[in-house]
Specification:
The complex is a heterodimer of chains A (409) and B (453). Chain A has 409 residues and is an alpha+beta fold. Chain A has twelve helices and eight strands. Chain A has a four-stranded mixed sheet with strand order 1-4-5-8, covered by helices on one side. A four-stranded antiparallel sheet of chain A has the order 2-3-7-6, with no helix packed on it. Chain B has twelve helices and ten strands. In chain B, strands 1, 2, 3, 4, 5, 6, 7 and 8 form an eight-stranded mixed sheet that branches. A two-stranded antiparallel sheet of chain B has the order 9-10. In chain B, strand 4 and strand 5 form a beta hairpin. The chains are: A alpha+beta (409), B alpha+beta (453). Chains A and B meet through helix 9, helix 10 and helix 12 of A and helix 8, helix 9 and helix 10 of B.
């Protein structure tokens, strides 16, 4: 039965995440925007609290649980109506959106909730999942010369006895300075193309691996973004995620499967960040004497109200596409198309909304006295990482038109 | 207010600040001659006259002759039958119920097999063929929102089913979908807000074999029209209301036997049941850019006297506001259907059409337009479903429908625009339906009333 409101059983989780965002993230939001590269020590206590909640089964973690599927979650599945499931993907998307309503950069700095954790959850076998439980894992894909065409990476992994030796340079590793390990993409044989690309879990203390530097960025400054060098870095063979075989026919599927899971989560980040801007702008407009009327035609309302309605409409579309993608994942429906639609729409809406709100609020929006200008800086990355707007467009177009990557380049 | 006030057609779209200079007068005179000459030379005179006849066929005639007598029945003032709100599942779900899916499948067939093939001719004729309307009636479209206890098929609030049906129909053709759904809008309104007497008097006609044409008339022909503040007025006089004003873009106007009319009553908008045979009711053709197959017309109300019991629902504006929202919801669903039709059409086209030695779809500039179309269409659909499911569940949906309407007006029109663009010159000519969809999609955000879920 069609119903697009947030699941009832996740409401407590959403409320809880909202309280955390409001009372723990917002108070330190500007502080770590200013103090780039300083470790937000407040998050340790939050992470401990989330762990505690997860273990007690009281919640699925208020944080960005890309890992999901804890004991509490399994218990909750029994509450579903038997046909439709609202599970870990939905819970993650909703809680991430709330946390990013608080602060995107801090959410990305949440200990043990890195994108590498999502990759491990998506691709790892049971033994690896257990071994890497509780590890804070960043994700290292991008290289100085390779961005969107990740099949073209030049970091190499060479089998040597019971280990692989990794060489190369990775940039833009989120939480790269603070995490315990990184999931590194490297090629076993560049001549074999994407099929030879494998991912490896490399613990931080591994000899030959070093954090070269941290970036200075436009936004999400609370999150450290690292350049990591691998110089004859030797990792045990059992740290390879997925199959070690190079199956040319199977191609990129394994590695890319991660993205079907993480794209809706990045979309959720944009949805959360944009809602922060909408919530505040609505109130600032009301203070300025402009109330939003949902019944009266927009062209008969003040231009600011009409603009706000447009932004809110765009936002809601992005939010629903995000929930759709999560719902499909929970119900084991292939969602590659819908995940990219959510990411594409939420990426552009994140910018449109946050930038639009700055414009609507004028000097108040542009100045550092409010957080509107910060959200307008933070949101930009969400249209870039985990696949740029243009890459999402390519994926959507290929799927809708039924074209291969050779036909639609 | 004069019922014979002509439509503002004589100024050729010129703002009043435009002035003719001497050369302008000469050109205008030449133009007048050339125009008539051209018509004769091309042997078009007959056709042109035919078109004029079609467009003004109903003009200024009262409808008394056409209208049937609705026999008064039921208890006056007693509350009508109501279906309960749909259950609140508490689970996010995009799967229609089995009943809804069956309904959609049947309606989709009607859209493909009956509406689409008839669309172009109906668009030109500004009229929906009787057999198309009949096919819809036989499927039970007019009774979708009528309670089972009154002979309809609704067991609970069916806004979701209504939206799904509207979407499926419009995928065939928008104008014919509006014509097919117009009587159901009136029947649904009477089901939702009617008294026992109103339901017993009017609904049997809609649940029977000979379904009357009927229309929900809210739009008015004014710039910056605010549906919540209609210029049409209703004034109480003894046991009657007297209605004055003009409604625009009313579907099935020349054949409708019953109208639900929006009018201001003591400062609040309200709905009134007006039979077409009532004295003072005048109809004039009101052909528009699109939605032409719906047979759009103006409804002139000149001192129309109706019994006081013909007030439909509350007089305080609440019924009216709900009606406006449910109507907008139906338009959103229609827009999603047309948008899907465009996407369905351009997808194979851009893969077949070649330029520079390969399908144009192989170019990102083309492919990305399709990607955006697909993404925004899905967003429109989800926004519409969310508003519909909240309406069905009896929750507040004012915000949701406003956001859906904004998206459907904005992105729906964009889809229509890009649909033509993707076909290039072929999109501009009538060999392809995209030009019609372009014209039809402009109705979103303009039309109020006419349909209801």
């Amino acid at each position: 039965m069609i119903n697009l409101d947030a699941p009832k059983k996740h409401r407590a989780l959403i409320d809880q995440a909202h309280q955390v965002a409001m009372n723990m993230l917002r108070p330190i939001s500007r502080k770590y925007d200013k103090a780039e590269h300083e470790y937000p020590k407040e998050l340790d206590m939050l992470a401990a609290m989330i762990d505690g909640l997860s273990e007690s089964g009281a919640a699925n973690g208020a944080g960005a649980s890309g890992v999901g599927g804890g004991e509490a979650e399994k218990k909750k599945r029994a509450d579903d109506d038997g046909r439709t499931k609202n599970g870990a993907n939905m819970a993650s998307a909703l809680s991430i959106a709330e946390m990013c309503w608080g602060d995107v950069g801090l959410l990305l700095s949440m200990p043990r909730q890195g994108l590498g954790n999502s990759a491990i959850a998506a691709v790892a076998n049971a033994e690896q999942r257990e071994r890497f439980a509780g590890v804070w894992a960043g994700m290292a894909i991008t290289e100085p010369a390779v961005g969107s065409d990740s099949a073209n990476i030049s970091t190499t992994a060479v089998k040597d006895g019971d280990s692989y030796v990794i060489n190369g340079e990775k940039i833009y590793v989120t939480a790269g300075g603070r995490c315990d390990a990184v999931v590194v993409w490297a090629t076993l044989d560049k001549s074999l193309g994407r099929a030879a690309i494998k991912s490896f879990v490399v613990p931080k203390d591994t000899p030959g691996m070093r954090v070269e530097r941290l970036e200075h960025k436009l936004g999400i400054k609370a999150s450290d973004t690292a350049t990591i060098i691998f110089d004859d870095c030797r990792v045990p063979a059992e740290n390879l995620l997925g199959s070690p075989e190079v199956d040319v026919k199977q191609g990129f599927g394994g590695a890319m499967a991660t993205f079907d899971n993480t794209r809706p989560l990045v979309a959720a980040m944009a949805v959360g960040c944009a809602r922060a801007a909408l919530d505040l702008t609505r109130e600032l407009l009301a203070d300025a004497g402009v109330e939003i009327d949902y019944d009266r035609p927009a062209q008969l309302q003040p231009a600011a109200a009409a603009k706000f309605l447009e932004l809110e409409s765009e936002w809601e579309g992005a939010q629903l596409l995000t929930m759709q993608a999560a719902w499909m994942a929970d119900n084991r429906k292939p969602n590659s198309l819908e995940a990219s639609m959510a990411k594409a729409k939420a990426g552009r809406v994140g910018s449109a909304v946050t930038l639009g709100c700055v414009e609507l609020c004028g000097a108040v929006g542009y100045g550092e006295g409010e957080l509107l200008e910060k959200w307008a800086r933070d949101s930009k990355i969400l249209d870039i990482f985990e696949g740029t707007q243009q890459i999402q467009q390519l994926i959507i177009a290929r799927r809708v038109l039924g074209l291969s990557s050779a036909e639609l380049k | 207010m004069s019922t014979t006030k002509p439509q503002r057609t004589s100024r050729h779209g010129l703002a009043s600040t435009e002035r003719r200079d001497p050369i302008g007068y000469a050109v205008a005179a030449l133009g007048a001659v050339a125009r008539s000459d051209l018509i004769d030379r091309l042997g078009l005179r007959k056709q042109t006259e035919q078109a004029v006849f079609t467009l003004t066929r109903g003009g200024f005639t009262t409808m008394g002759a056409a209208g049937r007598t609705f026999k008064r029945a039921g208890k006056r003032g007693a509350a009508g039958a109501r279906v309960p709100a749909a259950s609140r599942p508490g689970v996010f779900d995009l799967t229609p119920t089995e009943d809804e899916q069956m309904l959609v499948d049947v309606v989709a067939e009607l859209a493909t097999d009956v509406l689409r093939p008839a669309a172009q001719d109906a668009d030109e004729a500004c009229e929906a063929p009787a057999e198309v309307l009949q096919a819809g009636h036989e499927l039970g479209l007019p009774t979708l929102g009528v309670p089972e206890s009154l002979g309809g098929i609704s067991e609970e609030r069916s806004a979701t089913a209504g939206a799904l049906v509207a979407e499926a129909l419009a995928r065939g053709d928008l104008g014919l979908a509006v014509a097919s759904l117009a009587p159901g809008a009136v029947a649904t309104a009477i089901s939702l807000w009617g008294t026992d007497a109103q339901q017993q008097t009017y609904l049997p006609a809609f649940t029977g074999d000979d379904v009357p044409a009927a229309a929900l008339a809210l739009t008015e022909p004014t710039v910056l029209f605010d549906v919540l503040s209609p210029a049409t007025t209703a004034r109480a006089e003894g046991a009657e209301y007297v209605l004055d004003g003009t409604k625009a873009l009313v579907p099935l106007a020349s054949t409708a036997e019953l109208f639900v009319v929006g009018a201001d009553l003591d400062g609040s908008p309200a709905l009134f049941l007006v039979e077409s045979g009532t004295e003072g009711v005048g109809i004039e053709a009101d052909p528009a850019m699109g939605v032409r197959a719906a047979g759009l017309g103006r409804l002139h109300l000149d001192g129309v006297r109706i019994p006081a019991e013909n007030l439909l629902g509350a007089a305080d504006g609440t019924t009216y506001a709900e009606c406006v929202r449910l109507s907008r919801l139906a338009w959103c669903a229609l827009g999603v259907g047309v948008g899907q039709a465009v996407l369905d059409y351009v997808t194979p086209y851009v893969k077949e059409r070649k330029a520079f030695g390969e399908p144009v779809a192989h170019r990102q500039s083309v492919a990305f337009m399709v990607a955006t179309m697909a993404t925004e269409l899905q967003a429109m659909r989800l926004l519409t479903y969310k508003a519909a499911s909240r309406a069905a569940q009896g929750r507040d949906f004012a915000r949701e429908v406003a956001l859906a309407r904004k998206a459907c007006a904005e992105h729906g029109m964009r889809i229509g625009l890009d649909g033509v663009q993707l076909l290039g010159g072929h999109g501009f000519v009538k060999d392809h339906p995209v030009e019609r969809w372009y014209r039809d999609l402009r109705a979103l955000g303009v039309m109020e009333g006419a349909v209801l879920v």
